[in-house]
Amino acid sequence: MTALIELQGAGKAFADRAVLQAVNLSLLPGRIVTLIGPNGAGKTTLVKIVLGLLQPDSGRVLRSPRLRVGYMPQKLHIDPTLPLQVERFLQFANADTPACLAALDRVGIAHLIKQPVSGLSGGEMQRMLLARALLRKPNLLVLDEPVQGVDVTGQEALYQLIGELRDELNCGILMVSHDLHLVMAATDEVVCLNQHICCHGTPQQVSVDPEFVALFGAKTALYTHHHDHEHDLHSEVVSASCDHEPTQHASRGGRQSDV
Known about the structure:
Layout: E1 5-14, E2 17-27, E3 32-36, H1 43-51, E4 58-63, E5 69-72, H2 86-91, H3 97-106, H4 122-134, E6 140-144, H5 152-169, E7 172-176, H6 180-183, E8 189-194, E9 196-201, H7 203-206, H8 210-216, E10 225-226, E11 243-244
Parallel strand pairs: 3-7, 3-8, 5-6, 6-7
Antiparallel strand pairs: 1-2, 1-4, 8-9, 10-11
Helix pairs in contact: 3-4
């Protein structure tokens, strides 16, 4: 399968300080790759290289000629006094009203199209940002902390939506996350970064890798969540019940900016 984007031995330094060293990464259609690592690991720098905002000092970046990237930032700060509706915000992406409505409908918030952005909840804000990324009709989605500021129930629903979009669009997805307990059950591949790639593989493989354990602690293990129900936008259970495997898990705390 041809990669959408491939990094070959990519390295980057700032003021003679190495931030990334010899990073190899392939993002393929239909695959969710989650990038994890401690603060200062170089995750933001790697994302900027994938987005084309930075060029590596060493190595190569190969891009598919048909690459279309949809980017969802970790968080968007909008002045609460700014009279900006959801529809108008999406139109800044050069989209007309029907396209905006279709994108909002796909992420489950079409009814908020005329609402002020400042009045959105954390989960609604993240869904709006995801809708904006979808307007580009991407074959690669780059999602930086997509569940930032969302409660646990909303996180599960968002990860489920991201998986559905991957299946529908057959797009590649690169996610960045600090929260391990849910994202490890919502990804195909995990890349653990700490200036270099410490380990990578399936969640099951990475969760027992000695380098992963050294970074995140011996009590960190894979969290598995079996869905047989759904939640509506108000976090109400729509049907049935769900089973959690009571494995130990870890969640990193508030995010600081990393290089």
